[in-house]
UniProtKB/TrEMBL annotation:
Biological process according to GO: carbohydrate metabolic process
Domain spans labelled Beta-galactosidase galactose-binding: 474-539, 624-709
Domain Beta-galactosidase beta-sandwich, chain residue ranges per copy: 365-421
GO terms under cellular component: apoplast
Compartment annotation: Secreted, Extracellular space, Apoplast
Catalytic activity: Hydrolysis of terminal non-reducing beta-D-galactose residues in beta-D-galactosides
Keyword Protein biosynthesis: no
Family: Belongs to the glycosyl hydrolase 35 family.
Protein's name according to its UniProt entry: beta-galactosidase
Main subcellular localisation: secreted
Keyword presence, Transmembrane helix: no
Length: 732
């Protein structure tokens, strides 16, 4: 009997111990806020965060990226939630692969960081259609981001879907999970002025809807000054030390500290000096800020057709501390890490007191925080853009470099200066991988048959997305024009001129199967015109216009209403009787390319496709050509890229997965010297002038198998596949 009691006692003790351990592992957190900071379990926190967008990298990269963020001194990972990736058609959801949001948040939790989940669901983010699914545009009676019933119903439905999923996995801090903050809406203030009362009503509705979901964590609205209680309004920008929340009991938060800037095809590469970024962060902290999120900490890649803009590059590197390929970028990564360490040394004083500001000179100030028991923290600032300053503080002499802040955790000793960079600069090279392309083949789009296979015929010019529903970048507009045998140009006169007016984004022009050229818009001016003399013949002539989208717009007043495609006019000039307007005659429309219909990108595509092989495959450098080749995975573990410098414009796939759009558009800008000092704007420190904006395209190693990887390129303009190569990204 005694033995039985002893055994039962040991079992009970074991079960109680296991339960206690389990409880401690899932212990719920209380997240609130006051005027100083986000408060977690009763403790005010200085929180350092970084944006990493899960679809812009691969699941195999996530853990390494998050660990590097933690090693860099971050507390929080910030991400948007991408509605169009998760609900590609109404009620059909995708949470797999790069869109496995649950796996991403679990990985953050396992590494030991918090999460700020920015549900939106409008995200902007230079992402296709701002994150909205294109089908949403076709809901009856809808108007985006205003007091509109159909829009609010759809937005609430998706927001509830995400919140419920997070609750089911116990991801909110109130359930013991890592999510300490959520965001509803996104950067709405710029839209509000044009919407008036309907905009204010929408903001109030969105706030009430979000709070009513009972997540147990605070909600924020960024760039929305009239965010209603209890929503925290926050700042986005290159600097936010000017920012004050709309109520004195809310913390001062910077949801997007822009670490660099995005790139657009044909533009330069913006670089933000780390000295200035660190200066901006320190300025925010010394003014009483307590939450900073770097947008981006890792920018990643716009795989597939996810880039927006339009004209945003496939690379979303953003000059972030961790580069597009997942490698730390120095000196930005290490300099910010040292800044974070210095800030954390000051945390107790920073969250306990308001700064006492003392002038030390014309451009110099001291911001002093105290926390009792003799605790004293000082930030010594020199705002002069050119000259260092010698100051006296606390009976000590200090030299402050221009445009910098020195941090003194004890009001005596400098542990960090924003302009004094100790980290060495990364030397990045794209080097040969040793992997060669073999079994090259070519397939030419049959331009002559377009119009015969059209799926829609209509009088007049149709808007592109209304036809394609964004299932493809490409839409053929074809028509026929009869030329009388008596026309003067047929007897040696001047050829007529064809003009095409497009709302965006590019067009390739063919007449009677002959290529007459292309024209392109820009991100700043999507609309453009094509004009060229064309050789027509007596009788029927076929005009085929391939309109090309380069990402749908992601920002602007009611961008869902903006047109894409050839919706202006198509006119023949210089005929004997003047001009002939073709705009309102019968047009035939074909969405997509024949190669897309035949699924040429798939490793299991139909073997009956008549590919041109051998040496002939490399000889044709004509537009609208498909290429395929094979390569073996390079040895080693360095990140990989495609060098497409010999190509023109198009799209690329590896083993059926879309690398993204490519375009050897040459960068125009001002690439002079770059001084870190002085107010930064995206056109200040440019690089890459006279070179393709993006030459190299990230190929995740997880997409590869050891042998026989299929590369497919669709080339719109004409390129040389014999010079395409797989390269390694080497950093030293």
């Amino acid at each position: 009997m005694g033995t039985t009691i002893l055994v039962l006692s040991k079992i009970l003790t074991f079960l109680l111990t296991t339960m206690l351990i389990g409880f401690s592992m899932i212990q719920c957190s209380t997240v609130t806020y006051d005027k100083k900071a986000i408060v977690i379990n009763g403790h005010r926190k200085i929180l350092l965060s970084g944006s990493i967008h899960y679809p812009r990298s691969t699941p195999e990269m996530w853990e390494d990226l998050i660990k590097k963020a933690k090693d860099g001194g971050l507390d929080v990972i910030d991400t948007y939630v991408f509605w169009n990736g998760h609900e590609p058609s109404p009620g059909t959801y995708n949470f797999e692969g790069r869109y496995d949001l649950v796996r991403f948040i679990k990985t953050i939790q396992e590494v030991g960081l918090y999460v700020h989940l920015r549900i939106g669901p409008y995200v902007c983010a230079e992402w296709n259609f701002g994150g909205f699914p294109v089908w949403l545009k076709y809901v009856d009676g809808i108007s985006f981001r205003t007091d509109n019933g159909p829009f609010k119903a759809a937005m609430q439905g998706f927001t509830e879907k995400i919140v419920q999923m997070m609750k089911e996995h116990r991801f909110f801090a109130s359930q013991g999970g890592p999510i300490i903050l959520s965001q509803i809406e996104n950067e709405f203030e710029p839209e509000l002025k044009g919407l008036g009362p309907a905009g204010h009503s929408y903001v109030n509705w969105a706030a009430k809807m979000a709070v009513g979901l009972n997540t147990g964590v605070p909600w924020v609205m960024c760039k929305e000054d009239d965010a209603p209680d209890p929503i925290i309004n926050t700042c986005n920008g290159f600097y936010c030390d000017y920012f004050t929340p709309n109520k004195p009991y809310k913390p001062t938060m910077w949801t997007e500290a822009w670490s660099g800037w995005f790139t657009e095809f044909g533009g330069t590469i913006p670089k933000r000096p780390v000295e200035d970024l660190a200066f901006g962060v320190a300025r925010f902290i010394q003014k009483g800020g307590s939450y900073i999120n770097y947008y981006m900490y890792h920018g990643g890649t716009n795989f597939g057709r996810t880039s927006g803009g339009p004209f945003i590059t496939t690379s979303y590197d953003y000059d972030a501390p961790i580069d597009e390929y997942g490698l730390v970028q120095e000196p930005k990564y290490s300099h910010l890490k040292q800044l974070h360490q210095a800030i954390k040394q000051c945390e107790a004083a920073l969250v306990s007191s308001d700064p006492h500001v003392t002038k030390l000179g014309n451009y110099e100030e001291a911001h002093v925080f105290t926390a009792g028991k003799g605790s004293c923290v000082a930030f010594l600032t020199n705002y002069h853009m050119n000259a260092p300053a010698k100051v006296v503080f606390n009976n000590r002499h200090f030299t402050l470099p221009a445009w910098s802040i020195s941090i003194l955790p004890d009001c005596r000793n400098v542990v960090f200066n924003t302009a004094t960079v100790a980290a060495k600069i990364s030397q990045v090279q794209m080097v040969p991988s040793g992997s060669i392309l073999y079994s090259v083949a070519r397939y030419d789009e049959d331009i002559a048959t377009y119009g015969d296979r059209g799926t829609i015929t209509a009088r007049g010019l149709l808007e592109q997305v209304n036809v394609t529903r964004d299932t493809t970048d490409y839409l053929w507009y074809t028509t026929s024009v009869d030329i009388k045998a008596s026309e003067s140009f047929l007897r040696g006169g001047k050829w007529p001129t064809l003009t095409v007016d497009s709302a965006g984004h590019a067009v390739h022009v063919f007449v009677n199967g002959h290529f007459y050229g292309s024209a392109f818009g820009t991100r700043e001016n999507r609309k453009f015109s094509f004009s060229s003399q064309v050789n027509l013949r007596g009788g029927a002539n076929r005009i085929a216009l391939l309109s090309v989208a380069v990402g749908l717009p992601n920002v602007g007043p009611h961008f869902e209403t903006w047109a894409t495609g050839i919706v202006g006019s198509v006119v023949l000039h210089g005929l004997d009787k003047g001009n002939k307007d073709l705009s309102w005659q019968k047009w035939t429309y074909q969405a997509g390319l024949r190669g897309e219909t035949m699924n040429l990108v798939s490793p299991t595509e139909d073997s009956s496709v008549d590919w041109i092989k051998g040496s002939l495959a490399k000889q044709n450098k004509q537009p609208l050509t498909w290429y395929k080749a094979y390569f073996d995975a390079p040895r080693g573990n360095e990140p990989l890229a495609l060098d497409l410098n010999s190509m023109g414009k198009g799209q690329a796939w590896i083993n059926g997965q879309s690398v993204g759009r490519y375009w050897m558009a040459f960068a125009k800008g001002n690439c002079g010297s770059c001084n870190y000092a002085g107010t930064y704007r995206q056109n200040k420190c440019q690089s890459g002038c006279g070179e393709p904006t993006q030459r190299w395209y990230h190929v995740p190693r997880s997409w590869l198998k050891p042998r026989g990887n299929l590369l497919v390129l669709f080339e719109e303009l004409g390129g040389d596949i014999s010079k395409v190569s797989v390269v390694k990204r080497s950093v030293s």
